[in-house]
Amino acid sequence: MGKTQSKLTSSDIKELMECTYFDKRELQQWYRDFMRDCPSGTLRKEEFQTIYQQFFPNGNPSKFANFVFNVFDANKDGHITFKEFITALSVTSRGSLDEKLDWAFNLYDLDSDGFITRHEMLDIVDAIYSMVGNMLELPKDEDTPEKRVDKIFSQMDVDKDGRLSRDEFREGAKCDSWIVQALTVDPGLPQ
Question: Is the confidence at residue 3, as pLDDT, over 60?
Fold first, then answer.
C-alpha cells in the first residue's frame, strides 16, 4: 500500500480482503477517505489524537489515543499506514469477541511482555477516565481508576500473581459487562 497511490491495486485489495472483514467496495471507500484525510498516506500520532478529541470534546483523550495509536502502529514506525489502520479497524469494529479481547489485551499490555500488570491497567483505565470526563455516572466501587483496577484484578487475577495473562484477561473480561459492552459497541468510527 504505497504512500501516495490514489487507488488500491487489485493485489492490495486481495491481500486486505484476506486479512480483514471488509469487502472490496468497503476497502476502496475506506481508502479514499483515508487518503482524503491523510494525503501523505500515513496518519501521525498528533492527527490521531485530534480525531479522538472530536469524539470526546468534554474530556482529555490524548493519553488514551496515544495508547491506541501504539496498537494500530503495528510496525512501530511512528505512523499508521492504511493497511495498519484498516486491519485494526476490522478487528475493533467487526471482529469476534475473542479477537477484540486479544486486541484489547495488546492495548493494556504496554510493554508487550505477555502480561498486564496492575500499573499497566491503571495507566489505561486512568486514560479512559480522563477521556470520558464526567460523562459517565460510575458506581461507588468504580468511581476512581484505582478502585476500577482493584475490582478488575480481584475478578480476573485467578492465580493472584499481580498480573493478568492473556487467558485470565480474556476469560475475566467475558464476565465483566463493562468490558464486554465497551468491546461490542462501535469504537467511534463508522462500520
Answer: no
Q: Model-level pTM?
A: 0.85
Would you say 156 and 164 are in contact if contact means Cβ atoms under 8 Å apart?
Answer: yes
> In sequence order, which residues have a C-beta less than 8 Å from that of residue 73 and are 6 or more positions away?
79, 80, 84
Question: Cα–chain-centroid distance for residue 11?
Answer: 27
* All cell numbers assigned to 173: 473480561
Residue 77: C-alpha distances to residues 38, 61, 80, 164 (Å): 16, 22, 8, 28
Instruction: Say if residues 85 and 118 touch (Cβ distance below 8 Å).
Output: no
The C-alpha torsion from 87 through 91 and 95 to 96, rounded to 10°, is: 130
Count of all residues that appear for the chain in the document: 191
What is residue 183's predicted lDDT score, i.e. its pLDDT? 66
Which set of grid coordinates corresponds to residue 65? 489515543
